[in-house]
Specification:
single chain; alpha+beta; Cyclic Phosphodiesterase, Chain: A; four-stranded antiparallel β-sheet; two-stranded antiparallel sheet; 2',3'-cyclic-nucleotide 3'-phosphodiesterase; EC 3.1.4.37
Length: 243
């Protein structure tokens, strides 16, 4: 990755090699204690989910051909085989920590509008409870209405299954860049460097696949990352080793 970065103009950002499992995980960032609890809970549950997958694969992550797109975050990357276990893991994480929390929050807004307000940008946010209350202040908001989430859980499972089949696109990014298109001369240099480094030919060919290259791994580290602002400003909120 370091060698490839030097081929692109403008000093592309450096980042750790990784496979993105999902985005938009819901955590509480307003309260540091709640943030820590959310991060620990999500990482622990994710590690358990990963360990529960069938042990019928040699490598959970198997790299395929090198490819490029117009998108900044998919400028240059290895495709990753959609291994059934990897897809199942992504589906579980998407359901439990993205879709279901979002759907429950939306339903709570409908059932308990008194618990929410609008921020300066017009977004719906939870009201912050004051730690101190005087006699002159208004009384506490009425008790929250409880509601059954079983129907939401069923729908979340369906949505996650559809997402895992139609939208989940595992890949290992090599370079982030705005350059487009990659001209033929640069593309030849890229292929040469990757081929020389890995001692494998035709890295951008459909014939290049995990069965031939043997590139990939099983286990590693799960990380929860706050991806806001510049890539260099991304913050690792927590991590857990998985084997």
């Amino acid at each position: 990755m370091g060698s490839l970065n030097t081929l692109f103009p403008g000093q592309p950002p450096r980042f750790e090699p990784h496979i993105t499992i999902t985005t938009n995980i819901m955590i509480d960032l307003d309260d540091p204690n709640k943030t820590r609890d959310d991060v620990d809970r999500i990482l622990s549950a994710s590690a358990v989910a990963l360990s529960s997958l069938p042990k019928n694969h040699d490598k959970l992550v198997r790299l395929g051909r090198v490819n490029s797109q117009r998108k900044f975050f998919k400028k240059l990357y290895f495709q990753v085989d959609s291994d059934p276990n990897l897809v199942s893991f992504a589906r579980i994480i998407r359901e439990l920590f993205v879709i279901l929390p979002h759907d429950i929050e939306e339903e709570n807004i409908k059932q308990n509008p008194q618990l929410y307000t609008k921020d300066s940008n017009g977004n719906t946010v939870k009201r912050k409870l004051s730690k101190k209350r005087t006699k002159s202040q208004s009384p506490p908001a009425q008790e929250a209405k409880q509601f059954d989430t079983s129907g939401l859980q069923y729908l979340a499972a369906q949505k996650a299954a559809d997402w895992s089949l139609n939208e989940f696109d595992p890949h290992l990014s090599l370079v982030y860049s705005n350059i487009h298109p990659i001209d033929n001369a640069l593309w030849r240099t890229i292929k040469t460097r990757i081929s020389d480094y890995l001692d494998i030919d035709n890295v951008d060919s459909d014939s290049f696949n995990s069965g031939v290259s043997g590139l990939g791994w099983d286990g590693g580290v799960l990380k929860l990352v706050l991806c806001e602002g510049d890539v260099n400003d991304w913050i690792v909120l927590g991590s857990v080793d998985v084997h």
